Amino acid sequence: MISRRAQRIPESGIRRIFELVASTPDPINLSIGQAHFDVPDVLKDVATSAIQQGFNRYTVTQGLPELNERIVGMLADRYGTGNTWSLVTSGVSGGLMLGFLALLDPGDEVLIPDPYFTMYAVLAEMSDATWRTYDLYPGKPLTEATLQAGVTERTRVLLINSPSNPTGRTLSGAELDAVAAVARRHDLVVVSDEIYQDFVYELPFASACQHVDADRLLLLGGFSKTYGMPGWRLGWATGPEPLIDAMRRFQQFSFVCAPAPLQQAALAALDVDMSAEIEAYRAKRDRIIDGIADHYACSRPGGSFYAWPEIPGDIGSERFMERALKRRLLVVPGKAFSARDSHLRVSFAADDDMLDRGVDALCAIAEEIRRG
Ligand code: PMP
Predict the structure, then answer these.
(1) Does some domain include residue 13?
(2) 215-249 pLDDT, tens digit each
(3) 231 part of a folded domain
(4) CATH number, residue 237
(5) Residue 147 belongs to what domain range?
(6) Largest CB tally within 10 Å, which of 150, 159, 224, 253?
(7) Which atom of ligand 1 is nearest to the CA of 94?
(8) Cα(224) to centroid of ligand 1, in Å?
(9) Using 50, 70 and 90 to split pLDDT, how confident is the model at 20?
(10) Residue ranges lining ligand 1, Cβ < 6 Å
(11) How far apart are CA 123 and CA 218, in angstroms?
């Protein structure tokens, strides 16, 4: 009954953590992949009044023209460049799916980072493509040679994600130049997932659109993280016209359009200043990183809301999680995002009290491991 394609799709590695969250009383939950604040009231008002006023029918497939205009304008203002073709998507997830369907034929390869946001690998399989990885563990710069090592004659897409889920790493301008050079050399399309582009703590942030040739770049971004609205399913894609047009056609026959009344709220969101929330997240990052610094090797994330500490004592995530669960601490084992089992994803999208309890638990576990 079930297609071979469906049989190839594994259970998400994070699922077990969700089950643990549900079954652990009063957990110290640092496993969350969404901001801990709610949608600003002004945007709730725009959304509810759009619904009340009957803005509940389909929009055009590519999304409200004025929203598309603002997205392109926002990118031009921030980065002084960018493609002018755009599409409003059902989250960045929707944009990734449409992009993969539009770019990949069966047997083609996508080159993704390791560690990676798990959806990339699954979407490659759903598109009947395959995937390989390039090393993006902290500690050394991303070079042309590192990327080159993963390129084969079947590679069509080079995927980057800065700031990164799960490591918080941001790519420098020089690293993006290496991406651009390899893409040009091998005629690849660069898919750049910049969903965390507002959560950056080391400025200026380098966007792929400032480094990669516009005619080979699909830039994806969204509203879920920045405005605390992951359930509203809103994102955007910009890229060269033929690609955006192919994605629009797939959208026409699948998602149809992003949620109509919420597109009104997305338009209003672009005028809402979230800098206080971002500053608060910078402080949360430092709270975690400084808190665990004596016990964990962990580079300071340049963006997103994740830290990526190494598991001390080389004991692997299974044994680490046993100890964590005894303290009701929930983090995600790095192997959910990687071929390696050496790190943890620690989310700092939580209130400060939860972060402090998390730091205490993490330090106590490291101390226990050190004593053997
Ligand atoms: N990309 C990355 C790197 C993410 O972390 C997420 C959300 N966890 C997404 C894409 C998907 O976000 P959404 O579909 O809500 O826009």
Answers:
(1) yes
(2) 999 999 999 999 999 999 999 999 999 999 999 99
(3) yes
(4) 3.40.640.10
(5) 56-269
(6) 159
(7) 14
(8) 8
(9) confident
(10) 33, 91-93, 117, 161, 165, 193, 195, 222, 224, 230, 235
(11) 16
